[in-house]
Amino acid sequence: MRSYERHLVTKFSDLGLAEMLLRALDREGYETPTSIQDQAIPLLMQGRDLLGIAQTGTGKTAAFALPILNRLIADRQRPAPFTARVLVLAPTRELAAQIADSFRTYGQFLRPSVGVIVGGVSHRPQNDMLARGLDVLVATPGRLLDHLGSGRFKLAATEVLVLDEADHMLDLGFIVPIRQIVAKLPKQRQTLLFSATMPKEIAGLAQDMLNNPAEVSVAPTATTAERVEQHVFLVDGAAKRDMLVELMSGADVSRAIVFTRTKRGADRVAQHLDAAGVGVEAIHGNKSQSQRIRALDGFRRGRTRVLVATDIAARGIDVDGVTHVVNYELPETPEAYVHRIGRTARAGASGRAFSLCDNGERGLLRQIEKATRQTLAFTDRRSADARNADAEPARHNPRAPRAGAAKDDGGRGAQQRPHREGQQLDGHRPGGKRPARAAQGRKRRPFNGESRPQFSRPG
């Protein structure tokens, strides 16, 4: 597998795309390709398989849609009933719909037949659409397997396979459905795999699916968008909702996404914001397809100022003009944090990302800082009792340095971190090692030959 690096070209016309595609790009106001587009498009137009690693918001969709449309222009043929020339797999319904819209936008002068197959809607309209044959089918893996299982829809004529947001599909447990789908595809095909991160599972999938692929990487793993201003508010858990209302009441918040961990949490946060007079909609997996489309459309058109979403939407919401992202609850993985805040600062704009962190989430915050290789500025809005509790364990820890003793901080003293407010975040580590117990007061029972019960320590 070879990795390619090219200098950014100045215009799309330098990439050798068909004239009708250049006309569509000009009409949409696109002049300069992004780095992933500049590197990937020429390779794909040569028919190469490709492994593309790029963070969210870098223009991956156009990077594969444009060369695919160029291929359809060069070889115009009507697809047979119940077949698709191009198959794009996406992890979420929202992302699938947006990919299809991109194909229609870039191919507006070609007018390719583009269809979307997702769960949550009736099978019959989808069957009718498949019966006509499609140039491009965008699908989520589960629903596509349903149609393949019926025996009518076939993948034998599919020329190009695209896996978009492959790492997210693996996170959602789609690895087995993906392999089942790939087994039904012809061996002679072009395969493109795009991912924001490169875990071992993606490397293994790429090795199995791709044939002598080129690799294009435009951003290191877990790198946050450069134009996103990030800030953390340390708050008590019970004060999060009021803090969120305060943030969303700011005059500069014109379009914001608030992320929660759970679907029920998203509904509760949305209800609280609504009661405070903030225009809000919630979007998550328990919502019907029509509800999710309506909520996303209202947010995109500006009828709704705040969208509350779970992580399933972190990579599926592609809306320009998002000024703020709020992590109401920190995600379980640093990669999810990167994708969440990547919803702002898109298309060359800047944005702000706020995170509300209570004491139970301090470990997650440290993981994010370690993975993104940055120290996040913070404001401590906790109660006095919570602040004092931070220092309490240190006073009883026999390993703590004596008062007045010099502390070896490795050259990272507080005076070198003026942007930090209050105590350092790593001053107390919840869930870490407990202070050592003094040995002199401990009584030990003599071993009598019987096995002792094993007790697990509380975390």
From TrEMBL:
Cited SMART domains: DEXDc (SM00487), HELICc (SM00490)
Sequence motif: Q motif, positions: 10-38
Composition bias, Basic residues: 430-446
Domain Helicase ATP-binding: 41-216
CDD domains hit by this protein: DEADc, SF2_C_DEAD
CC per GO annotation: cytosol
Region (Disordered): 376-459
Pfam families, A to Z: DEAD (PF00270), Helicase_C (PF00271)
Stretches with biased composition (Basic and acidic residues): 379-395, 418-429
Protein name: ATP-dependent RNA helicase RhlE
Family in the record: Belongs to the DEAD box helicase family.
Keywords, alphabetical: ATP-binding, Helicase, Hydrolase, Nucleotide-binding
Entry keyword annotation includes Hydrolase: yes
Gene3D superfamilies assigned: P-loop containing nucleotide triphosphate hydrolases
InterPro entries according to UniProt: DEAD/DEAH_box_helicase_dom, DEAD/DEAH_RhlB, DEAD_box_RNA_helicase, Helicase_ATP-bd, Helicase_C-like, P-loop_NTPase, RNA_helicase_DEAD_Q_motif
Span of domain DEAD-box RNA helicase Q: 10-38
Domain of life of the organism encoding this protein: Bacteria
Domain (Helicase C-terminal): residue spans on this chain: 243-387
GO molecular function: ATP binding; hydrolase activity; nucleic acid binding; RNA helicase activity
